[in-house]
Design goal:
single chain, mainly beta, ten-stranded antiparallel β-barrel, elongated, 2 helices
């Protein structure tokens, strides 16, 4: 069966390399764009930003497109920012996560291309322990994700759209210490879904029926941690080399699953990430 769109594996791999170079450039530029202001001024807001890029294995299953499991590799770009006012216990967190993966089936006869963008926004309540060396944070995030899976072997239904919105309880723990006269930190973050909503075609329903003929068939589905479990974690290690440069190395695990409309789907990604962290202060001048 011929595919609906022309496809070239070598061109796709070149696109992955180009995206890696582009994301690395974006990662480097913002890291030195801000400067930390004196702490003596009031009315300020402290922002900690991180820009990271990494790669690793991906596993994909989407029974709307194929009953086969696909395995391959991909890259992820992650930008995060946490904002907090001095002396307050609440902070605001925002994250942008872009992912692109290329996978083969077990017989190496078909390929799938997966891409997604996720936006996370949330609030954390902070507690400090052990003489301010240990920071515990708890709260919740809202996550909106848009993406696609493209199967090169299918002719009639070559692609699957991915749209979802989740409310996710979240927690993080950061331990700061000094070693070899350098400031370091270990941080662990965890997010899991509570409730949400997602888009999915029904079993046997084509996108032509859905969009051209307008045949709605339970395509907007409320979800819970039972029907669409989502587990996202990140373990990071920071080393502060200079006043302006902090290196972060981390593992990012993103495990998305769903079982709705008699269709099963999962996308498991494991990424080794590297990037920079910048902490700066925005001053609000009052006349």
């Amino acid at each position: 069966m011929q595919t609906l769109f022309p496809y070239n594996r070598f061109s796709m791999r070149k696109a992955l390399i180009a995206l890696t170079i582009l994301a690395a450039t974006v990662c480097v530029i913002p890291a030195g764009a801000q400067s930390e202001q004196p702490d003596s001024l009031t009315g300020s807001r402290i922002t900690t930003s991180a820009y990271m890029i990494g790669g690793g294995p991906t596993r994909i299953l989407d029974t709307y497109l194929s009953q086969e499991h696909f395995s391959g590799n991909g890259i992820t770009f992650l930008a995060s920012a946490e904002r907090q006012r001095p002396g307050r216990h609440w902070s605001t967190v925002m994250e942008h996560q872009a992912n692109l993966s290329f996978a083969d089936d077990r017989s190496n006869t078909a390929d799938e291309l997966e891409g997604s963008y996720g936006f996370f926004w949330g609030k954390y309540r902070s507690w400090t322990l052990l003489g301010d060396r240990l920071l515990i944070q708890g709260g919740a995030m809202a996550n909106a994700t848009v993406g696609f899976i493209y199967n090169t072997l299918n002719g009639n239904n070559p692609a699957q759209a991915r749209l979802s919105l989740n409310i996710m309880p979240s927690a993080a723990a950061t331990y700061r210490f000094t070693l070899w006269q350098k400031r370091m930190a270990v941080r662990y973050e965890l997010q899991m879904p509570l409730v949400g909503v997602m888009f999915s075609p029904n079993y046997g329903q084509s996108y032509y029926e859905l969009f051209s003929r307008g045949d709605y068939d339970h395509n907007i589905i409320p979800t819970t941690f039972v029907s669409a479990p989502y587990f996202r974690q990140q373990l990071s290690f920071d080393v502060n080399f200079t006043h302006r440069f902090t290196l972060r190395v981390s593992y990012l695990g993103d495990y998305q699953q769903s079982q709705v409309n008699n269709l099963k789907s999962h996308i498991y990604t494991h990424r080794l990430m590297i990037g920079m962290v910048k902490r700066f202060k925005i001053i609000n001048y009052r006349p």
